[in-house]
């Protein structure tokens, strides 16, 4: 048996110790809820009549009898997201499978699902991060009818999966499985798409060429194939044991995908309190599970958004993690995958190279995952998640997964990694604490000293770029982009601009209290700087011309000491969001006012009970 890596043990143990009080309080709450099983028997006749009125035929008879377990389906289906469009017919597959397995399934509710790819650079992006909270609350509304013995959550993309999981954890007494729909087939190569975006940024090509490029990249149903937050979500749900093994990256509209969807219904019925294998999600998600999620994220160069989302997810289960945990693990977890923007390949290439089964196996062999965890497939990761699904004579089976990578340009073992650490750093100094993903940043660009050029919006950066004002070594500082200021939109349009400057030979970096998403690329970017400017963060005091030093390897972000010492006692500049009206942003003003700092997940739900944080 492989010994666990000492740093994995140390980080896991300190999270367990740090979370003792809050985790105990959470488990007490779900134990109280467990005593109400089966849920429907506690309802009055009027309650039950209302809850079954939408059923027809035998399903109506079965649910009124309160004997057969009932699955609540919570779905993020819509036609705006290519990844979620395949969910249209999943409910029918689930209901039929549930009937055949002696249960019932009921569409409990839909949750909103917005697409950052559509709202990038537009007013709607200011609603994006807080849509996570709306999804969580919508999940709670769907499940609060107390008609269910288990749940299936159908969601894939950026804020939707974290929101579904946060909401599901409020009903931690229910067994829950997450049901993915899979990625779209590969289209225009990601590196070619990136080059065309940079050509458009400098005016070398027109809008029609750019639109044709984007349409060839995002061309059909399924998850976008680059390794951003959506595919990071799927990797996390699998490594944390909330997917069936190997379910994450199977294409939609295939027999294997449909078989996995049906099996999710059958399996969750086996996990209910009526059986002998009761597996509530609130116990499945624990400190070791959360650490496994961080490790897998680091090992694959996953989305920086999860330095927010995993914190918020953990807190929903009474578990307290911080950026020190990410940073410490990153220094021991090797980078094993090269998926765009960390490489040229896409998520389909990763899956073909061995995917999740190989990744899980090699991390387990290196002692970098906690194996003794409960999953929806059973106990121990090694018993289930080193296998991959296959249809054999129309029967769904799990076979032994790859023991060697099929493509070492995309996926490698811990014995021959792409680099020795996970490429995520905690960066701190006089300007606060932030994170940087350096797995896609060449070593020669990881250390920069240059004058700051300060902006209060990404539109200001675009205008300066167009004027040629950025044609020099510089650290672009974009402030008032935190959750309190404007909802922390992704500053995605800065990536091609700064990439152009770097390609011209200038030393450039970005420092911001905003987000850059899973598409953070080759330019060094310190993001999520906390506290944010509107919480009196030091970033609000930075002036153009201040000399800033970023040492990404050492995790330092410094400013020239002489001038900064004279500025420490200055009152911060107050720059409230002046464009927060229209496009629904007024409805989110209460969210902006309540948002916690980025390192606490930028959540609006406040401190977890008994934590002592206000």
Automatic annotation (TrEMBL):
Q: Which organism is it from?
A: Candidatus Vallotiella hemipterorum
Reactions catalysed, semicolon-separated, are: 6-phospho-D-gluconate = 2-dehydro-3-deoxy-6-phospho-D-gluconate + H2O
**Cofactor(s) required, per the database record:** [4Fe-4S] cluster
A Pfam family per the record: ILV_EDD_C
Q: Which InterPro entries match?
A: 6-phosphgluc_deHydtase, DiOHA_6PGluconate_deHydtase_CS, ILV_EDD_C, ILV_EDD_N
Q: Its encoding gene is what?
A: edd
User: Which pathway does this chain act in?
Assistant: Carbohydrate metabolism; Entner-Doudoroff pathway
Record's family?
Answer: Belongs to the IlvD/Edd family.
List its EC numbers: 4.2.1.12
Which UniProt keyword terms apply here?
A: 4Fe-4S, Carbohydrate metabolism, Gluconate utilization, Iron, Iron-sulfur, Lyase, Metal-binding
List the protein's name.
Phosphogluconate dehydratase
Single GO molecular function? phosphogluconate dehydratase activity
Q: Residue limits of the Dihydroxy-acid/6-phosphogluconate dehydratase C-terminal domain? A: 410-602
What does the entry's cofactor note say about binding and number?
A: Binds 1 [4Fe-4S] cluster.
This entry carries the following GO cellular component terms, namely: cytosol
What superkingdom does the record give? Bacteria
BP-aspect Gene Ontology terms: D-gluconate metabolic process; Entner-Doudoroff pathway through 6-phosphogluconate
Keyword set includes Lyase: yes
């Amino acid at each position: 048996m492989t010994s666990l890596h000492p740093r994995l043990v140390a980080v896991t143990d300190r999270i367990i110790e740090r979370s003792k009080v809050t985790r105990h309080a959470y488990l007490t709450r779900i134990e109280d809820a467990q005593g109400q099983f089966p849920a429907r028997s506690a309802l009055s006749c009027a309650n039950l009549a209302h809850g079954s009125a939408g059923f027809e035929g035998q399903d109506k008879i079965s649910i009124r009898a309160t004997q057969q377990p009932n699955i609540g389906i919570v779905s993020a289906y819509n036609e705006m997201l290519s990844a979620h469009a395949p969910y249209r017919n999943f409910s029918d597959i689930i209901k039929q499978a549930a009937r055949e397995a002696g249960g019932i399934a009921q569409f409990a509710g839909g949750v909103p699902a917005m697409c950052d790819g559509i709202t990038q650079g537009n007013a709607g992006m200011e609603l994006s991060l807080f849509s996570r909270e709306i999804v969580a609350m919508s999940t709670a509304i769907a499940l609060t009818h107390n008609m269910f013995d288990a749940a299936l959550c159908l969601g894939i993309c950026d804020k939707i999966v974290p929101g579904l999981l946060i909401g599901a954890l409020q009903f931690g007494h229910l067994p829950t499985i997450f049901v993915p729909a899979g990625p779209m087939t590969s289209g225009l190569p990601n590196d070619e798409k990136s080059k065309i975006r940079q050509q458009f940024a400098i005016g070398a090509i027109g809008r029609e060429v750019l639109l044709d490029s984007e349409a060839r990249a995002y061309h059909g149903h399924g998850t976008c194939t680059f390794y951003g937050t959506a595919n990071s979500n799927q990797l996390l749900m699998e490594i944390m044991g909330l997917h069936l093994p190997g379910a994450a990256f199977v294409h939609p509209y295939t027999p294997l995908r449909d078989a996995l969807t049906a099996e999710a219904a059958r399996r969750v019925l086996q996990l209910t309190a009526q059986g002998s294998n009761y597996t509530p999600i609130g116990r499945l998600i624990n400190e070791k599970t959360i650490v496994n999620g961080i490790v897998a994220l680091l090992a694959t160069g996953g989305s920086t958004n999860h330095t927010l989302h995993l914190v918020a997810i953990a807190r929903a289960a009474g578990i307290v993690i911080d950026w020190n945990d990410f940073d410490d693990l990153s220094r021991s977890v090797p980078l094993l995958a090269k998926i765009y923007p960390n490489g040229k390949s896409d998520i389909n290439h990763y899956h073909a190279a061995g995917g999740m089964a190989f990744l899980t196996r090699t991390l387990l062999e290196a002692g970098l995952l906690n194996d003794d965890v409960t999953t929806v497939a059973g106990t121990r990761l090694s018993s289930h998640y080193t296998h991959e699904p296959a249809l054999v004579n129309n029967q769904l089976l799990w076979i032994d997964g790859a023991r060697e990578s099929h493509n070492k340009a995309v996926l490698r073992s811990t014995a021959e990694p792409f680099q020795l650490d996970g490429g995520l750093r905690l960066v701190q100094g006089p300007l606060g604490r932030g994170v940087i993903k350096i797995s896609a940043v060449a070593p020669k660009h990881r250390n920069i000293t240059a004058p700051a050029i300060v902006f209060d919006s990404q539109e200001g950066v675009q205008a300066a770029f167009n004027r040629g004002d950025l044609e020099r070594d510089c650290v672009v500082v974009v402030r008032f982009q935190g959750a309190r200021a404007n909802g922390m939109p992704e500053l995605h349009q800065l990536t091609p601009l700064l990439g152009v400057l770097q390609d011209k030979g200038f030393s450039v970096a970005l420092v911001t209290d905003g987000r850059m998403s899973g598409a953070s690329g080759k330019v060094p970017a310190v993001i999520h700087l906390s506290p944010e400017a509107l919480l009196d963060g030091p970033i609000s005091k930075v002036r153009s011309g201040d000399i800033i030093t970023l040492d990404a390897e050492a995790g330092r972000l410094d400013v020239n000491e002489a001038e900064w010492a004279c500025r420490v006692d200055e009152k911060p500049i107050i720059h409230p969001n002046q464009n927060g009206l229209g496009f629904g942003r007024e409805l989110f003003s209460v969210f902006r006012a309540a948002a916690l700092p980025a390192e606490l997940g930028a959540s609006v739900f406040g401190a977890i009970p008994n934590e002592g944080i206000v």
